[in-house]
Automatic annotation (TrEMBL), chains A, B:
<keyword id="KW-0285">Flavoprotein</keyword>
<dbReference type="InterPro" id="IPR004113">
    <property type="entry name" value="FAD-bd_oxidored_4_C"/>
</dbReference>
<dbReference type="InterPro" id="IPR016166">
    <property type="entry name" value="FAD-bd_PCMH"/>
</dbReference>
<dbReference type="GO" id="GO:0071949">
    <property type="term" value="F:FAD binding"/>
</dbReference>
<keyword id="KW-0560">Oxidoreductase</keyword>
<dbReference type="GO" id="GO:0003973">
    <property type="term" value="F:(S)-2-hydroxy-acid oxidase activity"/>
</dbReference>
<dbReference type="InterPro" id="IPR036318">
    <property type="entry name" value="FAD-bd_PCMH-like_sf"/>
</dbReference>
<dbReference type="InterPro" id="IPR016169">
    <property type="entry name" value="FAD-bd_PCMH_sub2"/>
</dbReference>
<keyword id="KW-0274">FAD</keyword>
<dbReference type="Pfam" id="PF01565">
    <property type="entry name" value="FAD_binding_4"/>
</dbReference>
<dbReference type="GO" id="GO:0009339">
    <property type="term" value="C:glycolate oxidase complex"/>
</dbReference>
<dbReference type="InterPro" id="IPR016171">
    <property type="entry name" value="Vanillyl_alc_oxidase_C-sub2"/>
</dbReference>
<feature type="domain" description="FAD-binding PCMH-type">
    <location>
        <begin position="52"/>
        <end position="230"/>
    </location>
</feature>
<dbReference type="Pfam" id="PF02913">
    <property type="entry name" value="FAD-oxidase_C"/>
</dbReference>
<dbReference type="InterPro" id="IPR004490">
    <property type="entry name" value="GlcD"/>
</dbReference>
<protein>
    <submittedName>
        <fullName>Putative FAD-linked oxidoreductase</fullName>
        <ecNumber>1.-.-.-</ecNumber>
    </submittedName>
</protein>
<dbReference type="InterPro" id="IPR006094">
    <property type="entry name" value="Oxid_FAD_bind_N"/>
</dbReference>
């Protein structure tokens, strides 16, 4: 039995005859690469959230658009669910395969089709890596702004599917704000264009609807992104604080001063020590919290803003404020932050990365509550986050081999996400819902809202064949959780106790 | 017969017993103000596009949320179509009433509920005027960025429904980029929240989907917008050119130089003369085209950018470049632009305002083509537009009392919009589709795309009661046009010949 897709609450999937499917694929798409042996399927069992694993029925690796179309048509005819996958770096098990489904790997569509420096756009295939777009645009002094920490590896198709963010999205927005147009194939293999090359597009905004829809509405086959001129200069300030609350208040003060930093990141002591030990970024290891504040633009402006931010930081009680001396030090400061996850990963055998958002003003209070929860569950929590836009990434440290620790980590994580919802935030900022947070969606939305989501899903995919069991929970799943909740009256997400 | 809603191609509307509807409204909502006499209905026959007029069955003017809910429930039960209306300033007949429908006027919901200077948000009712939000935020040095020319009068609910723009949307985005959350009532009166106070929101992006949906998906009852800090300073440059093509190229050069102006507007000679005559803005009346380029931000930055823009303008062949001496002159420069429509309106008894978008690089070519079409149809065209983001507003001058002029104006307008689609642009940048451009949507989208729009519409409003006949044409309407197109082989939108 597959515990990750639970037919009892997620809906019954059609039974598939693997031999028939394989034969049909081979007959109609003779050049398509298909993996079907157990050992071939192994590498595709999970995405970046490796705690969730399922062996797919089949993996297909198309190279041509008509192969993708063919796979979708065949799966539609035979009623086989399809899960699309890019680089597999997602952190919410959004590309987790199904035992009864085909995993459609888009990684080979990795061509940069056109860079238009006048229109400031790049037209690329979905398997192109995020960073590769900026590299291709660099000769024109342009770049693609959203920069998730996985940007070396993650693909733009996955970025669109998850509406990825990054350390610069406070100023430059999420993926949805940096897109012009996408080409998609619908569940039955029909080709559509969403968005336009020009400003806005009439009709309903299906481009925004599709962005962040986690593979439930169609398969992305081409992406046109906006490029931005590289800022003339970028400077970063590193401020140390003797309490996380002071750092949290400094964040609010910077924003209140009318400054929009290119990045405004916070790390607590555990994260600082881990990153320093791993990267030697030059962080003050005694500080209870640090803020990294990047300012970019033209020279004179940045100079002026740096002085203002320094003043705000000092008034907020920073024990020290340092500006990166040169570009090498600036890159080092950021390397510590961008490698905070793997760095923290060295402190314990396992960690569980959360991705909640909260209104900025709630920062100090939420941080205090997390500290309390950490003590209560007796598990260390490192806090790393995009402070400027209220997107927190608490990392819960545990050892899955110690009896009870995984359960405690999951319970603690659930409590943190419920806290986010309670203060007016949400259960995900940029990593998506995927399979991981499917239950927390029941806390985030009521049944009317979920019903509307299902109606929209049905407009694109009436048979429910695209990535079922992710992103939008069935009402049945929520009812089940709700019933258990009332019955047991304990944890907000009681199914976590079943692990 | 109502020529504006054509049941033959737009779908048959339910027959409504006005007496039963009136009695039901009065019984169940005794405090609701209902207009039903012919002379009371007269002022509500059109919105800002007065060429399109229909007398509504009834007008309701609720003051309480439960009245709006009650109206929707009653109309849902009795199968009566509902058209929502804000301030009625829309320019695409999006709030044009239906003979068989209720006009739901939301103008009395005009309270500013909360300004939160820390979170930089304003929570307001849908009837609040666009400018009133900035006025309420002014004590905190904040403002609401999107500024349509009608900002004194237009309401924020209408801005959301049409995804309104303005002269500053090149830098600060359209309405959709400045929204956090809306409250809506569905067609059957159910209350839903779309979006969230925090960054992003999980699930499908229904907030973006709803924005610009022109009243087809639900009724907006509350809006939470983002506020921005007022820029420290703003300067405007006025450049004169001896050809519109040169001005068009200067726009591309400014963008290519990596500068993002707060506004970048262009006017041709006819518009310049009209505005100067009306407002005395100080425009050079001999110029074939002028550009207004506003730069905002901190003092040092703006100073630097002004120098760079001046250099670009001079290299592009500007015959003169003037910077507004002081704030009074800056405001005067903008007043000319913001009043260009009424100013041009003084040149001829009637004018027809277009709203196409094109990729920026196509600007010089499209301007030349418009000049050619103007000669061909023997009608003057004044060009006023948001050059920076490729959103054109050609104003076609005509006299409806001269036989054949209205027909020629409509035909010329259709040709301009088809030209926009042909060069990769769209038939509307910020005014919406409404009833006005319903036929051009058949040129913009193919039947697969329109089918998907209808499926999305059905997810929200399966009975098709909300604003039918606007925004998304029926396939039947497009087929009819297409058939006539093939048959007659002349105009792209042959029905225009029927006027």
């Amino acid at each position: 039995m597959n515990i990750l897709y639970d037919e009892r609450v997620d809906g019954v999937l059609p039974d598939v005859d693997k031999a028939v499917l394989l034969r049909t694929l081979r007959t109609r798409l003779p050049n398509l690469e298909v993996l079907h042996q157990r050992e071939e399927l192994k590498p595709y069992e999970c995405d970046g959230l490796s705690a969730y694993r399922t062996t797919p029925l089949l993996v297909v690796l198309p190279r041509q658009l008509d192969e993708v179309q063919g796979v979708l048509r065949i799966c539609h005819e035979l009623r086989v669910p399809v899960v699309a996958r890019g680089a597999g770096t997602g952190l919410s098990a959004g590309a987790l395969p199904l035992e009864k489904g085909v995993l459609l790997v888009m990684a080979r569509f990795n061509a940069i089709l056109h860079i238009d420096p006048d229109a400031r756009t790049a037209r690329v295939q979905p398997g192109v890596r995020n960073l590769a777009i900026s590299q291709a645009a660099a000769p024109y002094d342009l770049y693609y702004a959203p920069d998730p920490s996985s940007q070396i590896a993650c693909s733009i198709g996955g970025n669109v599917a998850e509406n990825a963010g990054g350390v610069h999205c406070l100023k430059y927005g999420l993926t949805v704000h940096n897109l012009l147009k996408i080409e998609i194939l619908t569940v039955d293999g029909e080709h559509l264009t969403l968005g336009a090359d020009a400003l806005d597009s009439p009709g309903f905004d299906l481009l925004a609807l599709f962005t962040g829809s986690e593979g439930m509405l169609g398969v992305i086959t081409e992406v046109t992104v906006k490029l931005l001129p590289k800022p003339q200069t970028a400077k970063v300030l590193l401020a140390a604080f003797d309490s996380v609350e002071k750092a949290g208040r400094a964040v609010a003060d910077i924003i209140a001063a009318g400054i929009i930093p290119a990045g405004l990141e916070m790390m607590d002591n555990l994260a600082i020590r881990a990153a320093e030990d791993f990267i030697h970024a030059g962080y003050p290891v005694e500080a209870h919290a640090i803020l990294l504040c990047e300012l970019d633009g033209v020279e004179a402006d940045v100079h002026d803003d740096c002085a203002r931010v320094r003043q705000v930081l000092e008034r907020a009680g920073a024990s020290s404020v340092r500006q990166a001396r040169d570009e090498a030090e600036r890159v080092r400061f950021w390397a510590g932050r961008k490698n905070a996850f793997p760095a923290v990963g060295r402190l314990a055998p396992d960690y569980y990365c959360m991705d909640g958002t909260i209104p900025r003003r709630e920062l100090p209070g939420v941080l205090q509550a997390i500290a309390g929860l950490s003590t209560h569950y007796n598990l260390r929590v490192a806090n790393v986050f995009h402070a400027g836009d209220g997107n927190m990434h608490p990392l819960i440290l545990f050892d899955a081999n110690q009896p009870g620790e995984l359960e405690r980590a999951e319970a603690l994580g659930g409590q943190i996400l419920e806290l986010c919802v309670k203060v007016g935030g949400s259960i995900t900022g940029e990593h998506g819902v995927g399979r991981e947070k499917i239950n927390q969606m029941c806390a985030q939305f009521n049944s009317d809202e979920l019903t509307l989501f299902h109606a929209v899903k049905a407009a694109f995919d009436p048979g429910g064949l695209l990535n079922p069991g992710k992103n939008i929970p069935t009402l049945h799943r929520c009812a089940e959780l709700g019933a258990m909740h009332v019955h047991m009256g304990q944890l907000p997400f009681p199914e976590l106790e079943r692990f």
